[in-house]
Write a structure and sequence with these properties.
The structure holds two protein chains of two kinds.
Chain A: E1 4-7, E2 10-13, E3 19-25, E4 31-37, E5 43-51, E6 54-57, E7 64-66, E8 76-78, E9 87-94, E10 100-102, E11 106-110
Chain B: E1 4-7, E2 10-14, E3 20-25, E4 33-38, E5 45-50, E6 56-59, E7 62-67, E8 72-77, E9 86-92, E10 103-104, E11 108-113
Parallel strand pairs in B: 2-11
Antiparallel strand pairs in B: 1-3, 3-8, 4-5, 4-9, 6-7, 7-8, 9-10, 9-11
């Protein structure tokens, strides 16, 4: 049982490049979320999904897109990377009334 | 706007000490308050959680105290060990969202010296 799997673990982008951070879970959880973690700010919610085909914005959605075509996958897209998007990104999944399980994170640097 | 405020930012205790981490929240609609533990290079992992209908919850050496009227909750770690050295985050979640919309505190870096 792998839990929540994020790829890649590390990535360096140039300003203006695009990329997709992958997130997959094998626990059949309905809820999935993306957070970014910055020093001194905790984790902040970017986007979340309550099921396949349903997504909504969190606290810091600008510059990021998501889609949820299957229960298992919830990719996060950066359309035009900016240095302000340098961060550690975490994907999480949860079932109704249970804890959120987090992936190991993707460390992204935008130069 | 930080809806969950956490203090202190860092904490150093000796082995066997009882570190206490405090959080305050603003949104009275929050109904689920978890604490997460994070080791370097890893994702956060749930440590213990509480709902506002109880004032205290214990799991092993970890205790949450919850004060609904003051909108505050805290984590106590009894008999702390060097292996407890990690970053701790409090969080809060709106109702009926099953941990998918967590608002986190800023984090506390705990160091337990041998």
């Amino acid at each position: 049982n792998a839990g929540v799997t994020q790829t890649p673990k590390f990535q360096v982008l140039k300003t203006g490049q695009s990329m997709t951070l992958q997130c997959a879970q094998d626990m059949n959880h309905e809820y999935m979320s993306w957070y970014r973690q910055d020093p001194g700010m905790g984790l902040r919610l970017i986007h979340y999904s309550v099921g396949a085909g349903i997504t909504d914005q969190g606290e810091v959605p600008n510059g990021y897109n998501v889609s949820r075509s299957t229960t298992e996958d919830f990719p996060l897209r950066l359309l035009s990377a900016a240095p302000s998007q340098t961060s550690v990104y975490f994907c999480a999944s949860s079932h109704r009334a249970t804890e959120a399980f987090f992936g190991q994170g993707t460390r992204l640097t935008v130069v | 706007q930080q809806q969950v405020k956490q203090s202190p930012q860092s904490l150093i205790v000796q082995k066997g000490g009882i570190p206490i981490i405090n959080c305050a929240y603003e949104n009275t609609a929050f109904d689920y308050f978890p604490w997460y533990q994070q080791f370097p290079g890893k994702g956060p992992a749930l440590l213990i959680a509480i709902r506002p209908d109880v004032s205290e919850k214990k799991e092993g050496r970890f205790t949450i105290s919850f004060n609904k009227s003051a909108k505050q909750f805290s984590l106590h770690i009894m008999d702390s060990q060097p292996g407890d050295s990690a970053t701790y985050f409090c969080a809060a979640n709106p109702p009926q969202t099953s941990g998918s919309r967590l608002t986190f505190g800023e984090g506390t870096q705990l160091t337990v010296n041998p």
